[in-house]
Amino acid sequence: SKTPVGFIGLGNMGSPMAKNLLKHGYPVIATDVFPESCKELQDLGAQILDCPAEVADKADRIITMLPSSPNVIEVYNGPNGILKKVKKGTLLIDSSTIDPSVSKEMAVAAEKMGAVFMDAPVSGGVGAANLAKLTFMVGGVEEEFTAAKELLGSMGANVVYCGPVGTGQAAKICNNMLLAIGMIGTAETMNLGIRLGLDPKLLAKILNMSSGRCWSSDTYNPVPGVMEGVPSANNYQGGFGTTLMAKDLGLAQDSATNTKTPVLLGSLAHQIYRMMCARGYAGKDFSSVFQFLREEEGQ
Ligand code: NAD
């Protein structure tokens, strides 16, 4: 039988990911700061503990899926953090999207304790997390990749080795900058078409058989009524929060500054998502930029 896997952070993404580990026969030992997020997993047979240190005491493979850099620092380095109790040889995989420099710091701290840290942020959204179809972008020591791949393979369709620690984050940050630009572009395009008298469903169908097609138009359309089973069909609840997208665009801006790279549209996308956070969209899915654009136009 399989040895237990620790899982820390049972939010929109972490919950379905941990469920897929259970489905593949891995016993799961989990924790989250909000006890209510643990309920569902506990009902499915996961063992729930009080803090990351306790998880580290019991598991020699741990996955973390947390909102942002400060949460990751807390969960690894905090007073009840993983590194307080981590066992030698433990494989630590962080699937949160965070600053690559924080991933590097965590790897150094883990190494001091005799453990291995890898960054493995994901792409695909909640739908892909449920279906175990995520893409994992993995950074870390190459010799550890096989062990990481075995575990991540039960939660994803693609597990890609990117290079040394931090390079998984680099790939993820680039993807999300393009995703944000694509989503805003799709939202404003759909809105223009609607203003020109086109039925939104028909317009989406045409875009999706034409050169304007992208993930935001064919898999995650931001216009209510165009697709089922996406956040726009459910008042933009669940999915990928606007705050998280603003965070990722901030990471892209920092990286662009550090590498002196011009990212003009990425910068504009960052400003748009920051403004949305300040205007009541913080808790909604990032496709609510469609709603935001409609408001800006006084509708
Ligand atoms: P979320 O906010 O829904 O979940 C995060 C969970 O972490 C919450 O349940 C929270 O209670 C828990 N948490 C926070 N601090 C903690 C701590 N100190 N100890 C234990 N638990 C703690 O976020 P999410 O949507 O699941 O996203 C997680 C990460 O994955 C983010 O970095 C995000 O950018 C990235 N991501 C999200 C999506 C998506 O579609 N939602 C897609 C790809 C990547």
Verbal overview:
The chain is an alpha/beta fold. It folds into 2 domains: 159 residues, NAD(P)-binding Rossmann-like Domain (Rossmann fold), CATH 3.40.50.720; 127 residues, Orthogonal Bundle (N-(1-d-carboxylethyl)-l-norvaline Dehydrogenase, domain 2). Helices cover 49% and strands 13% of the residues. The strands form 2 sheets. A 6-stranded parallel β-sheet has the order 3-2-1-4-5-6, sandwiched between helices. Helix 9 packs across helix 12, helix 9 packs across helix 13 and helix 12 packs antiparallel against helix 13. The structure holds nicotinamide-adenine-dinucleotide. Nicotinamide-adenine-dinucleotide binds next to helix 4, strand 7, helix 7 and helix 12. Pathway: Amino-acid degradation; L-valine degradation. GO terms for molecular function: 3-hydroxyisobutyrate dehydrogenase activity; NAD binding; NADP binding. It is found in: Mitochondrion.
Number of strands: 9
Oligomeric assembly: single chain
Beta-strand percent range? 5-15%
The strand order across the widest sheet is 3-2-1-4-5-6
Per CATH, which architecture of the largest domain?
3-Layer(aba) Sandwich
Q: How would the global form be characterised?
A: globular
What distinguishing features does this structure have?
N-(1-d-carboxylethyl)-l-norvaline Dehydrogenase, domain 2, Rossmann fold, globular, alpha/beta, 6-stranded parallel sheet, 3-stranded mixed sheet, binds nicotinamide-adenine-dinucleotide
